[in-house]
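Course assignment 3, question 2. Fill in each field.
Student: A.L.
Task: Predict the tertiary structure for the chain below.
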Amino acid sequence: MGVEGCTKCIKYMLFFFNFIFWLAGGVILGVALWLRHDNKISSLLDLELDGTKPPSTFYISVHILIAVGAVMMVVGFLGCYGAIQESQCLLGTFFACLVILFACEVAAGIWGYMHKDTVSKEMINFYDTVYDQAMTDTITEQKKTAITNVLKVFHETLNCCGKGTGTSFLTQLTDKLGITDVCPSQQVSVSCHSRIQELFSDKIYLIGIAALVVAVIMIFEMIFSMVLCCGIRNSPVY
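Answer field:
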């Protein structure tokens, strides 16, 4: 025999929330792997010019997400098994893991909010450096070809050209005159700054929404696990 009454209801509710938590861990793991191998992001972050690569802040965040998703799946399974077995030891371990995960998530959320524009700014700075070098006449032809190839990846991937409307028009004009060859073949007047911000900001908001949903689930799980643990301890059959 096991727990009865309201405590039994809590047991199955905890199992249900743990199953959702386990699924959420799988979703976060899947989303993180998708972000890591997204064609647009990979084509930009894997660029290299004179040994200099774009900032890796975004990939560091994605790798952390992969680890979080994997840990969530393990902890979710632990919670499900502990609830079904009505084990105080497993539930206590599960609760401790949840507290640690929740604290890490809150800390990561605060850090992420404070640095939410960092990835975009770093990538824009990298783009501006490449763009300014491509527009310089004093560099060698070999280096200019390498810079132009990097710049064309930005423009073709994001379907943009230039740092703003003025530079976009000017670059397209120099392309027509044969001075440069960096803009996409079709006419575009969209600033690459805005395209870069859109690309990374959309992904960051997606991560934020997922983290908020998981945090709410974790709060319910901590409450239910403690109630169930107390119910098991006070149950007359133990």
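Instructor remarks: The helical segments are 6-36, 39-45, 57-85, 88-114, 118-134, 141-158, 165-176, 192-234. The radius of gyration is 25 Å.
Grade: pending
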